[in-house]
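A reminder from the course coordinator: this example appears on the midterm review sheet, so study it carefully.

Given structure:
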């Protein structure tokens, strides 16, 4: 019995003397790498006009199978051109719409946007986004943005993975159909990006802009059909509008 006790004491002493990191045998951390950017995202638009003069904009988004990252945000430019008329405010039961704060924040930045309302779904939640002119692929603009209703579950980190299609994006407006830019973005915080992409405490404004620009390079910009404001009709302004459509 004494030998057993002595052996147990020696074993306990040996285990306590082993470094904790050797005992745990932790797996090395996943290396931080920059994934290939989104490419060739497809968006199809369908527009209908109801009996009340309301345009319904339906968008179907396809993330090609060859992409390596999922889509977390879809943002369509709804900025009113500086020569456009503001369309009528819209409010329809069952559709969400911007609050007064959104209008105030946008106006403070010298912008106006086409009044719209949108339908939230189990996959997507809508809202108004002020695009940063220093970083955004849309430039200085206001966008109607849908965000995926994702969570921390690693098996459900995106709701629009490569190879998947979503046809649940809908907004309504009195704004006439026109050619608008659209940008598709991943969800930054799940990409395990290197530190040079991540804003850190103490970063200067210039450094933060530089990092945001780097992240935006992972996005993809395209065009689609969306609501726009009719021009305050003069030949010069109308020609300018047509020229913008040609150049997109």
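Designed residues:
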């Amino acid at each position: 019995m004494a030998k057993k006790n002595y052996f147990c004491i020696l074993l306990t002493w040996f285990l306590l003397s082993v470094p904790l990191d050797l005992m745990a045998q932790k797996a090395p951390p996943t290396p931080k790498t920059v994934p290939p950017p989104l490419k060739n995202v497809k968006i199809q638009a369908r527009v209908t006009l109801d009996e009340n003069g309301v345009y319904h904009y339906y968008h179907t988004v396809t993330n090609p199978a060859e992409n390596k990252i999922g889509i977390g945000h879809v943002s369509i430019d709804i900025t009113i051109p500086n020569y456009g008329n503001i369309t009528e405010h819209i409010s329809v039961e069952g559709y969400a719409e911007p609050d007064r704060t959104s209008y105030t924040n946008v106006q403070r930045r010298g912008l106006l946007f086409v009044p719209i309302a949108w339908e939230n779904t189990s996959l997507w939640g809508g809202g108004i986004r002020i695009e940063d002119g220093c970083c955004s692929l849309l430039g200085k603009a206001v966008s109607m943005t849908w965000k995926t209703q994702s969570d921390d579950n690693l098996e459900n980190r995106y709701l629009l993975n490569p190879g998947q299609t979503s046809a649940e994006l809908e907004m309504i407006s009195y704004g006439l159909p026109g050619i608008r830019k659209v940008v598709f973005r991943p969800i930054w915080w799940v990409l395990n990006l290197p530190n040079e992409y991540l804003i850190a405490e103490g970063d200067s404004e210039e450094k933060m802009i530089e990092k945001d620009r780097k992240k935006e390079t992972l996005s993809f910009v395209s065009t689609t059909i969306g609501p726009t404001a009719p021009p305050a009709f003069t030949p010069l302004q109308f020609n300018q509008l047509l020229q913008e459509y040609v150049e997109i």
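The radius of gyration is 25 Å. The first helix runs from residue 2 to 17.
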